[in-house]
Structures are given as structure tokens and as C-alpha cells.
Batch of 3 targets.
Target 1
Amino acid sequence: MSRLKDTFGRTIDDLRISLTDRCNFRCIYCMPAEGLPWLPRREILTYEEILHLARIFIGLGIHTIRLTGGEPLMRQDVEVLIAGLLRLDATLDLSMTTNGFFLVEKVQRLADAGLKRINVSLDSLRPERFERMVRRDGQLVSKILAGIRLAREAGLNPIKLNCVIMRGYNDDEIADFARLGREQDVQVRFIEYMPLDAQGRWTMDTVVPGAEIHARVHAVYPLRSEQGNGSEPATVHHFADGRGSIGIIASVSQPFCESCNRVRITADGHLRTCLFSLTEHDLKGLLRSGASDEDLADFIIATVWKKEAGHKINQPDFVKPDRSMSAIGG
């Protein structure tokens, strides 16, 4: 049973761990074309430190860990960390979110190490548009799709494809992504564009609400049911003909904060209790100063207890976090 509770009665059992703030893509909803100043390597948690903290979190009731970034596969020997996490708890629900660039080369090693499932980010199926949104060679689309096929062959299941929908950029590809999911046995997760870009250009005008995304898919591929997924961020909608499902993450138009069960550790070792937190809590400082496991556990429990009620995107007093998505950890 989880010892991590907050003042709103939520039980926290899902931990996102960012392995790096570095990324080889420059997605327009995340960072500028020139990139961002990267954290010095000495500030990044080592694998030994990550395993130390993970052991404490698991002891407090965490049973789901997702490895994120930046791009997590830019860290060397990630499979060593994966194997280490599963030695802590063989039943751990361990997954990763990646941009897919390195999958062709690395996916078999990830599966062999014990990674159970994977989310791949892809925001356009059209090479020229991919170049506009990601600012990288559009021919990478075929490489990413090849990596997804190899992930399925390696036994990673389920495979989810994350697609951030932006009005005027890729919203005309919604049905194309739904078709891809049906053909490739992949659950496409359509994500509303959130105000986490380093440039600060986000506006409500560029958000395509989840209800509109649902309607656009339903018009081409009828959807038969809606499945509440508890504390999961995506609402799952099944195709009427039984050929899979889509997920819609409507963080802006239909916030699910009241059921949020997640906290995050940034690449430089700060605990964040909300994706949109304005305050971070320095776990790395405690760890490197020689704090005992009991002290670290007490710090984590006290921090999670103060978890925010939710983000304030639709409220007048909303303040955007200082860090962008790549620096926070998706």
C-alpha cells in the first residue's frame, strides 16, 4: 500500500524519471530551433543515484515508473538502468517515452533488459511537415515508423504513439494517425497542446480540444465507447469495428487533475509534484549531502503531501513554469 498521499486524498503511485534534458529534436511546442542551454553533466543524476531514489520510492508504494527526457535514449547504456530498476522490483510497471530516433538500433537491448512497454512521440506522418514541426530531416519519419515495428516484434506491448495536435500545423492529420493506429496495432494518443514551450508562444487558438479530435476521428472511423481509465491521463475510445482504440489526453480542455497519481524527478534531481509546478524540491542535494534513506523518505512523503490541487491553465492566475517540457521531463 502506498504511503504517498496528498491533502486532496489522492494516492501517488506513478513516478516519471527524466534521464536527461538533452534532446536531438527541436519540436516547436517544446524548444527553440537553436536548442536550450544543457545542464552540466555533473548536475545530472547518475544511474546509481536514480536507483537509490527509485528504491526509496518503491518502498513508499510506487509501482509504475516511466523513463523520460529530453530524449532518454541519448543517455548511454540505458538498458543497464532498466535492468537495475527491475532488480529492485520485478513486478514494476516500467516504460519509456522516446522520440523514436534511436529505436532501430536500441530497441532489442531495451526489451532484453526487461522494458515492458514504450510510448513513441511522432507529430506528423508527412516528411515536409515533420521538418517544420521537429526541425529535423523529414526522412526520419520512416525510420521512426521502422523502430515502432521493431518494438512490436521485440515484444513491447502496448505500443502507444503520442501525437501533440496543434491547430494550423497537423490537425488535418488526425484521421491519418487514426488509420495508422488501426493498421499497425498501435494506440495513437492525441495530446492537446500545452503551455510548456520554451518560446512562450502557446495560445488557446492553437489548442484543438479533445472533443473536436474525437469528432474528427469518429467521422471517419466510428468510435463505439468511452473507457474511463482511472488515474491514467488518456481517455480511451474504441473503434466500433473492434480494430483497436485511440487515447485522448485533454489536459487543457478537460483537466483530470483530481485523479492525478503522478510525481516527477527532473534530470538534475528535483522532485516536482505537478507538471506545471512553480516549485521544485531538491532531492539530489539531500542525497549528495549524505542524507539517510529515512530522511529522504520523510522528505518525499512531506513533499507529496503538499501536491497541488491541479494546474491553472484556464484560470486568470495561471503562471507558466520556468522550465520547458524537455527540462521538466514529459
Target 2
Amino acid sequence: MYDMVVSPTGALDHDFVEMMTPHHRGAIDMAQNYLRFGSNEQLKRIAQEIIVDQQQEIAAMRLAIGEQLPPSVPAPTQVGKY
């Protein structure tokens, strides 16, 4: 939550993305933890959807302000499965 505290730069679009990105990453982190330790299959499906949706929203926001996207990496749940 502390990462969402951003000193305003006056560039509202940039500030919005800088505040929303940690918010979305927090949702991703919580969903990944649930996938690792949770047991309810319905909630696991929801957690997977949250991860995909939040990653897409972060990418869309970054592109909207003209930033390059970082290189793709495997999801933590995929590492070591290949």
C-alpha cells in the first residue's frame, strides 16, 4: 500500500499509472499466494483470472502513457514445469 503513495508530478496520467500499478501488483501477489496455498478450486480459477486481468491492465496503462513493456517472463506458477 505504501507504494501507492506517489508525490504528484503534475502529470496526471503518469501519476495515475504510478499509483495504480502497485495496487494491481498487490492483487496479483495475493492471487499468486492463493494459487500456491489455497484449496478451493473455484477461488483458484478466480485467482488465475485476477492475475491475467491485472497484468493486462498494467500493460494497457503503461502503453497509454507511452512506456515500453518489460520483457515477458513465465508466471511463477509455470517456472520449472517445462
Target 3
Amino acid sequence: MAKEGIRHLGYPAYFGIALTVFKVLGAIILIVPKAPKRIKEWAYAGFGFDFIFASISHWAVDGFGMEAMFPWIVFAVLAVSYVYYHKLSDSNAIG
């Protein structure tokens, strides 16, 4: 189903493989508590770009609809995670 979605948006098959690899690596980086802060920042940025560009791709191909809006919902969850990550890391640096 994911392969069909990538094809439907006009991307080559290898693009889906690259996205999968980077998403798995990014998820691992975000989950591991001792991952370096700079690497976590890049992981958050990568996921943010991914969700924004997914929305743009769906909007360009399918028009404005739930497929174009859903990445923004996930982006909002990512933004909340990012804010709390900084609150926790700042409080750990102080105490």
C-alpha cells in the first residue's frame, strides 16, 4: 500500500525505500534518551520536512483533502514532542 502511495504521487520506488530508512533511523534517535542533542535536532527537522512535503505532495496530486491535512496533524504532535523535549532537556541541565 505504501509503495502504491509513493507511485501515485509520482515518486520513484527508491524514494520510498530511502524515506523508510531515514524514518526508522530518526525514530530510533528520538527514542534513545542518550542520543546527542544535535542529532536529535536534525531528526526533528527531518520529520518536520517530511510531513510538510508530504502534505504539499498530496495537495498537488489529489487536491485539498484529508490526505493533505493528515501530515499537519502528525506535524502538530511532533511539535508538541519537540517543545517537551526542550523543556525536559533544559530542566535537566539546570538541576
